[in-house]
């Protein structure tokens, strides 16, 4: 085949310059490729009709939006992307929070699942003797929630449960002196039943400073009981004390509920009447133990501010006119100056109870000191 001049562009070959068999193959391949090629095709009659109708609607302003351009990808397609990003930011922390609550429902405020958790609404201040015992409370005590399943879960924490009445003049004592007697009585109750040092067997110095040394045998008997406790001189008459080698307090809270009132006494005195229930959550001294027990101590104590002009007393000091206790869920007939909780594991198990069954949370009944150890209906 003759060579073309170099100046003539390629692709301008005449078909006659190709061999016959090569040209035939080119034509045959071209015919086979027409059905699948991307070359423009003649639109069908139906397609031409649809296109013409849409063109006319568009000219009249009747065309639906987006028929030419398709959906608004910026306005619509962007939302799922933003939602996915928002879920990544918010959803993961929500899932983690739900998992944490599932493991520890007590983190939720209130008691949304009806578990009897200790976050139940607190009881209102007691201003008069109740007429019935409190209703049952569901739940089981644990180290995290030691008052679950007890009416005490709704009691106030510690000294917050001792609310003083408004002071008024009584007899020869003015409002300020009556207010001082009320505050001294509260300080006595706190030091004797709530102070951690006292609870672990220490000496309640505040109480010893409040009591009148001129009251016959009072201070001497108290000191003797603390020094060498026995049945006749039992410090539990006034104080709540645990043997720290035997039991440990669970948490820092003692639940408290009751009331305080005052009235005129004999010879122009002021008598302060205090009736309180203290509930202690305790566990065996063994730090590996998870057992939790509750000890319920109800105390009725009356203090008296006597008139020094009529009675031989120390001005500003209190007399103890009455002191009674009702101690529940403890070992019976032990007089060593300590409270011995009745644990389910059998630790400190004393003689079998011989008295009638009582509800230690029933504040509608009166109490009296007794050597009889009764059975408790609940703790």
Automatic annotation (TrEMBL):
It comes from the Bacteria. Coiled coil: none annotated. Residues 1-31, 39-61 have a biased composition (Basic and acidic residues). Residues 370-379 have a biased composition (Polar residues). Residues 1-79, 113-151, 345-379 are annotated as: Disordered. Keywords: Membrane, Transmembrane, Transmembrane helix. The chain crosses the membrane at residues 86-103. Signal peptide: none annotated. Residues 117-142 have a biased composition (Low complexity). This is Uncharacterized protein. It comes from Streptomyces flaveus.
């Amino acid at each position: 085949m003759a060579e073309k001049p170099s100046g003539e562009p390629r692709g301008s070959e005449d078909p006659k310059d190709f061999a016959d068999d090569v040209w035939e193959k080119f034509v045959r391949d071209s015919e086979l490729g027409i059905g699948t090629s991307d070359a423009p095709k003649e639109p069908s009659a139906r397609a031409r009709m649809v296109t013409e109708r849409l063109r006319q609607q568009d000219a009249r302003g009747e065309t639906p939006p987006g028929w030419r351009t398709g959906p608004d990808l910026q306005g619509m397609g962007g939302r799922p992307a933003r939602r996915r990003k928002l879920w990544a930011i918010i959803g993961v922390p929500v899932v983690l929070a739900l998992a944490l609550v599932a493991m520890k429902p007590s983190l939720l405020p209130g008691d949304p699942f009806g578990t009897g958790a200790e976050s139940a609404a607190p009881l209102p201040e007691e201003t008069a003797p109740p007429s019935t015992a409190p209703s049952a409370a569901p739940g089981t005590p644990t180290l995290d929630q030691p008052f679950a399943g007890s009416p005490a879960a709704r009691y106030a924490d510690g000294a917050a449960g001792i609310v003083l009445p408004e002071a008024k003049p009584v007899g020869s004592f003015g409002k300020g002196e009556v207010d001082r007697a009320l505050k001294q009585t509260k300080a006595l109750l706190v030091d004797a039943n709530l102070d951690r040092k006292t609870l672990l067997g220490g000496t309640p110095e505040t109480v010893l400073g409040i009591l009148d040394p001129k009251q016959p045998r009072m201070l001497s008997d108290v000191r003797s009981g603390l020094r060498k406790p026995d049945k006749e001189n039992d410090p539990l008459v006034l104080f709540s004390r645990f043997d720290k080698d035997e039991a440990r307090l669970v948490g820092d809270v003692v639940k408290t509920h009751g009331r305080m009132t005052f009235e005129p006494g004999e010879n122009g005195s002021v008598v302060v009447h205090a009736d309180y229930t203290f509930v202690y959550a305790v566990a065996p001294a063994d730090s590996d133990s998870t057992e939790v027990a509750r000890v319920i101590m109800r105390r009725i104590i009356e203090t008296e501010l006597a008139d020094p002009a009529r009675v031989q007393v120390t001005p500003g000091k209190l007399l103890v006119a009455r002191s009674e206790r009702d101690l529940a869920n403890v070992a019976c007939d032990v007089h060593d100056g300590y409270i011995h909780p009745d644990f389910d594991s059998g630790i400190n198990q004393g003689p079998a109870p011989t008295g009638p069954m009582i509800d230690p949370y029933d504040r509608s009944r009166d109490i009296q000191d007794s050597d009889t150890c009764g059975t408790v209906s609940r703790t």
